[in-house]
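Thread: quick sanity check before group meeting

JM: Hey all, I'm pulling together slides for Thursday and realized we never actually wrote out the predicted structure for the chain we discussed last week. Dropping the sequence here so it's in one place. If anyone has concerns about the input, flag it before I start.
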Amino acid sequence: MRSFWISKVISITNKTVFFAWSMQLIPVFKWKGINGGLPKNDKYMQKQFLKDRDIVLFSFQSWDSEIGFNLKDMAYELAKKNRVLFVNRADDRASLMPDKKDGLFANKKTRENLEQVERNFWLYNSGLVLESINWIAWSWLYDQFNKANNRRISKKINKAIRELGFQNVILINDNDFYRGLYLKKMVRQCSTYIFYIRDFLTIQPYFKKHGVRLEQQMIHNSDLVVANSGYLAKYAAKWNRYSYDIGQGCDLEAYQAIEYPMPADLAEIPHPVIGYCGAITAMRLDESIVSHLAESFPECSIVLVGPEDDFFRKSSLKDLKNVFFLGGKTPREVPSYISHFDICINPQLTNELTIGNYPRKIDEYLAMGKPTVATATDGMLIFKDNVFLCNSKKEYADQIRKILMDPNLSGDEIKRERINFALSHTWENSIGLLGGAYFDSIKKN
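JM (edit): ok, ran it. Output follows.
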């Protein structure tokens, strides 16, 4: 009798596990053993460069986005030793609406065009207008339309690949787990599919309906996953053993000039200037920190440079006399603003989106030797010896007060330390770790 009930329990358990697997409630792992889930980084692998390969890059961000992004910089670095095709983000019907203003997504390029950017490097605008499907609530229906969008994209990519004669392609998908979900099988010459994660997108409202399940599928189905922080690599390792931290690179040449012109809209703002450069969004920035600093330092000007979302366009900060919103600037203009800041800040909220994020702006601040005050997230720990990290708005005020009162914290010696640290974060180093991840996964798979 006892053996009868034991066999029943086992049978029920097996059926439950199979049902959960079939409904994708339990991810199917590629590896055995708990140790397989640990992310790899440069402690476990050596830098090794991809050479003479055909590489296709695919991003959720538009090539001509007003906000700089990693994959664009990585494309130039990869093209030094390989042939590279960057597939620009296609428009969808919603992005073409007259009142749609989105610096991340909309590129308004509906004419097909294959343009050579430089030797071994091409930019492809597919001319597609995809269906806007994010409003669909039913997963099964959404997946059918999403697969159709993926199929249309893949046909265009296959066409560009044939025209360029690409073979044995490495396809790198930058965070687009919607439009890139099925490309591994649909792009005919794809031999290796790499998913690049650099942000927690799934907590944003746009990705709430389908993002969590599709991101997990994307990570699991990729041949390997690379991330720009250890935190994100560890996150990806839940679903893919071959998850690697390749660090963050920065192109800091533009931040190394001896002098920079004073921007016209900054010229009349009184010093000391406490400045921020970057996207000004409610998902990332803590309005209360900025407000507290404005009230704590009425003698200082708080200057925010970057595109604003609806929340900050209506923010009560606009009513404060010593807070200045200067709007979005091109990447070429940004160094001139930072060079004329006295103190730089990154007043991030602490949430899933920011906690493991590597903020490029910190390297930009430090490359100019600026004293920098920032929120203490996991992603910021790498900067702990060169940045004043804070856990509250009071700590922000205390650290800024310390900088204002101690001239040594803005002296030449400490400036040089900050600059040298920032300059150690190169794209060459990051791309070397990407290659190391690729060869490590090939060896172990």
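AS: nice. The CA atoms of residues 363 and 422 lie 5 Å apart. The first helix runs from residue 2 to 22.
JM: adding both to the slides.
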